[in-house]
Amino acid sequence: MVKGSDRRADADGLESTPRETLRAAAVARRYFLEGRTKSQIADEFSISRFKVARLIDWAQEVGIARVEVTTPASLDAERSLLLERKFGLSTALVLSGEPVPAPAVPAQLGPATAAIIAEILEAGDVLGVGWGKTIDAAATALPTLPACPVVQLIGVTSSGTIAVNSSDIVRRVAAKTSGQAYQLPAPFLVSDATVAEALRREPMIASTIAMFPQVTKAVLGVGSWDPAESGYISSLPRADRENLRQLGVAADFCALLLDTDGAPVDPGLETRTIAMTASEIRKVPTVIAAAGGQSKVRAILAVLRSGLASVLVTDAATAADVLARADASQLSKPTDG
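-> structure tokens emitted (337 positions)
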């Protein structure tokens, strides 16, 4: 909810003059309510992404913008239970209510994802963090958390289709835990396996990768295999994209490619990625998958079928479509006898 504020100034010199207050409110509205990226906002207002980030932080600090976490009364208990039973999840957090426009889905799911992280995280845990718009929104909504290290599970991308930088998310989450941030200052996808192996030996990257086996809880976004949304796709040469389509890729989950049945699709790209592997993800006791919206239904179903996630955060409309598609595909499969 965006509201007005009295005149104030922060340590960075941002002052709540009418002009600055209006700009901060407009930036906050586009970021939190419309789901716009920092780059898009920067282009619209002809300011830097750094300035956008400062305005968003300042808007929260002085009360221009507030993030309100949804309450249990807004949960869809029936669909939550159906998802838990069908896919063996420990928890499915399904938000009730009417569908929201696609750009607003991260702002809808982010606070709920933050709430479940805050509920399950304990002192002594090691929290692994992925990327995506919903994960970014969750990082913004997090309260103060128990002290623990925070580990970046996937490298960064230069693609404009990814809304946020994974290193930035990890830094912000670590600020809420007062723990060390283990970052991966490398592209998530490189040109060949030799380059990837050399990067993995770099001291800072190696120290982060060494933390992967210690991760006890992880939160990851779900990437749809849609050129309009997937930073993975836009990072690939055209020949690789076509090859992956023919192999039936439906989703990416921490750079792991999955088909519609949730089985890994590995055309050799895993050797070129800087990210937690499938076998490492399976060893994490609690993995939260957070995603919603019509474009993510096929991808979410693939992740659920893979068994990689133990917790799902989504919205009621998406949950209904996931359940319907799962039931339809089950009916269409031939039976023995």
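The first strand starts at residue 91 and ends at 95.
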